[in-house]
Amino acid sequence: MDLHKFLVRDDGTSKGRVNYDITSGAIWDSESLFGRSTVAYIAYDIETTNLVYLKEFWRTDLPGIQKEGDLYRELHESQVSNIAKLWLAGDVPKTLGSMDTEPGNVQRTRTQDFAKGWIRQWSRFVSGSILMCTSIDSCWKHWGDC
Q: Cα separation of 100 and 74, whole Å?
């Protein structure tokens, strides 16, 4: 059995607290061609010796979009009930082990470099259903060639 060690950092602390979790593999992952590539793990937290739910995904990085971890912190501070407990939440720095997560110093997907052309092409469709049918046909064509 393969074990994977994750460095997990927390944006919610002044020094960017770092923790390590170990997992044997994903319990769930996204097979979607679109989205945030979410992967879920049950991991062993080395510091607390507890099992934790570890969720990894590419977050939406646009002005005005709040980070999920920051939202959970606000909800807990407001004593909202029936929500998941937040352990750690943070962006992945460009340099392994770095605490610097200022804009430009975190890992980012390059999707935004290519999406502008796709969005212009998609806006030419008369309706969402025609766009969806075309997208599905493209996926079937791609998978059929494998």
A: 22
Say how many C-beta atoms besides its own lie within 10 A of residue 30's C-beta.
14
Which of the pair, 16 or 48, is modelled with greater confidence?
A: 48
The pLDDT-based confidence of 23 (bands split at 50, 70, 90) is very high
104 in the same domain as 114:
no
Residue burial 70-98, b: 16+ Cβ < 10 Å; e: rest: eebbeeeeeeeeeeeebbbbbbebeeeee
User: Structurally, how many domains does the chain consist of?
Assistant: 2
Q: Are 72 and 82 found together in one domain?
A: yes
Same domain, 130 and 101: no
What's the predicted TM-score (pTM) here?
0.63
